[in-house]
Write a structure and sequence with these properties.
- With about 475 residues, the chain is an alpha/beta fold.
- The strands form seven sheets. The chain has a seven-stranded mixed beta sheet, with helices on both faces. A six-stranded mixed beta sheet has the order 10-9-8-11-12-24, with helices on both faces. A three-stranded mixed beta sheet has the order 1-5-4, with no helix packed on it.
- β2 and β3 form a beta hairpin.
Length: about 475
């Protein structure tokens, strides 16, 4: 169960400043707990503390940073059930998905612990001409400085971890703004970090209103901004960020190609998970399904039958697959998109009904390409079927989107697999599986409106580090 109230973390210390933020149980709609909210003055103090603590953070030896991360792994493992229950309540995440996210949180900190002691530079051969004779170069990686992190509601633990863990490994202090709808997971991370030997002021975790969070983006004391969320917000923040580097992990409109040689049963099993796990609220959730016409009817029939069988309801029950969307407003939005597509000639094959924040798992076909349900990010339990005859044309259709996060391709033809890797305008191509597949050490991110930069611990550490060169001259 959740506590009655939670503090925010200011300069590494818990502060029960108020109980202004009510966090609801997303299934029942009842207030589950209350959380302290930061104001602009508190955010300013947090940034000042991060700046002050940065020299001490940078001076920590790699093994000391590793020890902090290993402590987190130990404590998250011990508190796994508590963390999963918190996710289930604050995010409405089905309990099986919640347990899966906790395991990924632990994986992410494990990977960061491993990477923390292998952040290496290189020697550089400078003797490229006679004038450089006797010169040699060496590089090392140094922390970029205090970082600003803004994490989203759909993976409250692991997407915060993908910012926090590499920052600690790299030696960067940070301020984190978790999503106001789902702040508890990040605050439990803060509770565990407060048990460690991080320098005082090295971190702050501050739930706050969007209006009050401007300093997370504009303050020049912060040397990097990493944002995960919607494209409209992300690109607007980049425009305001000034000189600091910005990493954006934004939305998707993920497509999956099922070619004629695919194992239909295997593809259906994977697509079901890819489209409907955690109620479709993932930026790499399968949204557009392009199925070869030779197997289209069989795939459709078997797929729809299995989607109809998915259990929806109370996310705390082990057999629940579809829980509530994050809010009734979000469910109403997506239901409106489904109705709009239906009015324009689309066919609802199953689902399509809503009760409060619960939207039934929905499959559609014949959806016009200009409908929001097809062209935009659904971010809910919806998938759209369409047949294709020509593989190259199917790849073009995958690219017919302003998004480019990941794509999945079910084919046994290695040449077609490489063709997809060559031509798809996405950050990652997953062969033989859904675009929703991710492990936490791989480079993850998108192109076009889906973002800028890559997460995955080693790649995030690179963003949070600067290369510093030393040149040595040997007199001749």
């Amino acid at each position: 169960m959740l506590k009655e109230s939670y503090p925010y973390y200011l300069a590494s210390e818990p502060e029960y400043a108020n109980t202004d933020l009510e966090v609801t149980n997303k299934y029942t709609g009842e207030v589950a707990t209350k959380v302290a909210m930061a104001d602009v003055d508190t955010i300013d103090k947090a940034i000042a503390a991060a700046e002050k603590a940065q020299p001490a953070m940078a001076a920590m030896a790699p093994y000391e940073r590793q020890a902090v991360l290993e402590h987190c792994v130990k404590r998250f493992t011990e508190r796994a059930d508590e963390l999963a229950q918190a996710l289930c309540i604050e995010a409405g995440k089905p309990i099986k998905d919640a347990k899966g996210e906790v395991s990924r949180l632990i994986d992410t900190f494990k990977i960061a612990a491993e990477e923390s002691v292998r952040i290496n530079g290189e020697t550089v051969n400078l003797e490229i001409s006679a004038r450089a004779k006797g010169y040699q170069g060496m590089t090392k990686k140094v922390p970029i400085g205090p970082c600003s992190f803004i994490s989203p509601f759909n993976f409250p633990l692991n997407l915060a971890a993908h910012k926090v863990a590499p920052a600690i490994a790299a030696g960067c202090t940070f301020v984190l703004k978790p999503a106001s709808r789902t702040p508890i997971g990040a605050l439990i991370i803060g509770e565990v970090l407060a048990e460690t030997d991080l320098p005082k002021g090295a971190f702050s975790i501050l739930p706050c209103s969007r209006d009050g969070a401007d300093l997370f983006t504009t303050d020049d004391r912060l040397k990097l901004l990493s944002f995960t969320g919607s494209p409209d917000v992300g690109w607007a923040l980049k425009a305001k960020a000034g000189k600091k580097p910005v990493v954006l992990e934004l939305g998707g409109n993920a497509a999956c190609v099922i070619d004629e040689d695919a194992d239909i049963e295997d593809a259906i099993e994977r697509v079901i998970i890819g489209a409907y796990y955690q109620s479709g609220q993932s930026c790499i959730s399968v949204q557009r399904l392009l199925v070869h016409s030779k197997i289209y009817d069989e795939f459709k029939s078997r797929y729809v039958e299995k989607v109809k069988a998915l259990v929806s309801g109370d996310p705390s029950k082990e057999d629940t697959f579809i829980g509530p969307m994050i809010s009734e407003g979000e469910a109403e939005r997506l239901h409106g998109w489904i109705e709009e597509a239906k009015d324009k000639g689309a066919t609802i094959l199953c689902g399509g009904t809503r009760e409060g924040a619960m939207l039934q798992a929905t499959v559609m076909e014949n959806v016009p390409k200009d409908c929001d349900a097809s062209a935009e990010e659904a971010f809910g339990p919806l998938s759209i079927l369409a047949p294709f005859d020509d593989y190259d044309e199917a790849l073009k259709e995958v690219n017919n989107s302003r998004y480019g996060l990941q794509a999945g391709v079910f084919t046994r033809d290695i040449y077609k697999a490489h063709k997809a890797w060559d031509v798809l305008e996405v950050g990652g191509v997953v062969i033989g599986d859904v675009p929703s597949w991710r492990v936490d050490n791989m480079p993850y991110g998108g192109v076009k409106d889906s973002g800028l930069g890559r997460e995955g611990i080693r790649y995030a550490i690179e963003d949070m580090s600067e290369t510093r060169l030393m040149v040595i001259r040997t007199p001749q």
